[in-house]
Design a protein that fits this description.
Structural class: mainly alpha
Order of helices and strands: H
Strand content: under 5%
Distance between the termini: 93 Å
Helix content: over 70%
Shape: rod-shaped
Amino acid sequence: MRIFNYFRKMLSDNANIIMELEKLKKSIRNQDQNIEIIFKYLDDLSEKENTSKKQKKNRLYAG
């Protein structure tokens, strides 16, 4: 009977570990998505800044 209890406890512990790992995976996926969004926004801002600099240069040369 002790062996049965030992195996049941061991399986229960493993199930808890697996559930915690799944939570961590979800968290990491969310962080990856958030980082991608941040880089997209940074790229957009960089493009807008470059566009505005080009427009200012064109105004200086045109005027």
